Amino acid sequence: MRKTLLLTIFLFTATFLSGCAAVSSPVSNGLLFTNVKGPVAVTGDSNIYSKVGTSSCITVLGIVATGDASIETAMKNGGISKIHHVDHKSTSILCIYAKYVTIVYGE
């Protein structure tokens, strides 16, 4: 009975997570919902920045993925020429939809 239960859980997990829409996260991705923000890099030693730019990409069911979450695109979108620091935000809902956003702070 115990082996059957473990096998059932394993097969359900493998089936459910195959093709799963997942994103990078500083912590583990939540099975039902993920909404986290974390650091990527720091380049400046001052706390002065006046501009923020973002770029993003999405995926649906891990089957279709589109977008440009590069730092370069986020810099262009924010009119930034000198980077202070870079963060990211990850969102995932039921392993169906996931979004990754790059956030660049600078001048």
Descriptive overview:
- The longest helix has 16 residues, at 2-17.
- This protein is α+β, with helices and mostly antiparallel strands and 107 residues long.
- The mean pLDDT is 81.
- It has one domain (20-106).
- It is elongated, with a radius of gyration of 18 Å.
- A five-stranded antiparallel sheet has the order 1-4-5-2-3.
- The chain is built from two helices and five strands, in the order αβββαββ.
- Helix content is 22%, strand content 43%.
Q: Any chance you could write out the topology, listing elements then pairs?
A:
Layout: H1 2-17, E1 33-42, E2 51-60, E3 64-68, H2 71-78, E4 83-93, E5 97-106
Antiparallel strand pairs: 1-4, 2-3, 2-5, 4-5
Number of helical stretches of at least 4 residues: 2
Structural class computed from helices and strand pairing: alpha+beta
The number of domains? 1
Number of beta strands: 5
SSE order, as H and E? HEEEHEE
Which whole number gives the mean pLDDT? Answer: 81
Strand-residue fraction? 35-45%
What is the helix fraction of residues, given as a range? 10-25%
What composes the largest sheet?
A: 5 strands, antiparallel
Rg from alpha-carbon coordinates: 18 Å
Uncertain spans, ≥5 residues at pLDDT below 50? none
The best one-word shape is elongated
Strand arrangement in the largest pleated sheet: 1-4-5-2-3
